[in-house]
Design a protein that fits this description.
Layout (H helix, E strand, L loop, with lengths): L2 E8 L5 H12 L5 H22 L7 E8 L3 E7 L22 H9 L2 E5 L2 E7 L2
Antiparallel strand pairs: 1-2, 2-3, 3-5, 4-5
Helix pairs in contact: 1-2, 2-3
Keywords: Kinase, Transferase
Pfam families: HATPase_c_2
Protein name: Serine/threonine-protein kinase RsbW
C-alpha cells in the first residue's frame, strides 16, 4: 500500500474541512481507526495553523500539503508562505494560559515524530 498526495490550496479557513476530508478519503483504506483519527486531527491543526499563523489569513497565499502513506508509516508535511517559527516545546501544563501553541502541542502528542523547520511542519506516524 502506497499513497502519495500533493496539494496546493488557497489559504482560506473556510476550505480546511473540505481539504482534510478529501485527503482522508484518499488514504482511509491504509489506516487503522486510531491512525485515521490522529491523522484527521493533525491535518486540521497544521492546516489551520498555516492559514492563521503562517499566512496570517491572507487568501492570496497558499498552503502546500504532502501526505505519504506506506506500509510502515504516514508522513504529513504542511508548508505555508509565512516567515516561519522558532518553536520551543513546553511541558504539559505550560500551555494553560497561552493564547497559542496548543495546536502544535496536540500534534506532538499525536505524532511519533514532529519536525518544525521554518514554515514547514513534518509529522510521522508509525503504522501499527
Amino acid at each position: 500500500m502506497n499513497y502519495k498526495i500533493e496539494k496546493k490550496v488557497q489559504s482560506d479557513i473556510n476550505i480546511v474541512k473540505n481539504v482534510v476530508e478529501d485527503i482522508l478519503l484518499d488514504i482511509r483504506d491504509g489506516l487503522t481507526e486510531s491512525n485515521f483519527f490522529n491523522t484527521k486531527l493533525i491535518l486540521n491543526e497544521l492546516i489551520i495553523n498555516g492559514v492563521k499563523h503562517g499566512n496570517l489569513d491572507d487568501i492570496n497565499k497558499s498552503l502546500f500539503i504532502d501526505v505519504l502513506v506506506n506500509n510502515s508509516c504516514l508522513i504529513i508535511k504542511v508548508s505555508d508562505e509565512g516567515k516561519g517559527i522558532k518553536y520551543k516545546h513546553k511541558k504539559l501544563g505550560e500551555y494553560d494560559f497561552c493564547e497559542n501553541g496548543r495546536g502544535l502541542m496536540l500534534v506532538e502528542g499525536l505524532a511519533d515524530k514532529v519536525d518544525i523547520n521554518g514554515n514547514t511542519v513534518t509529522c510521522v506516524q508509525y503504522l501499527k
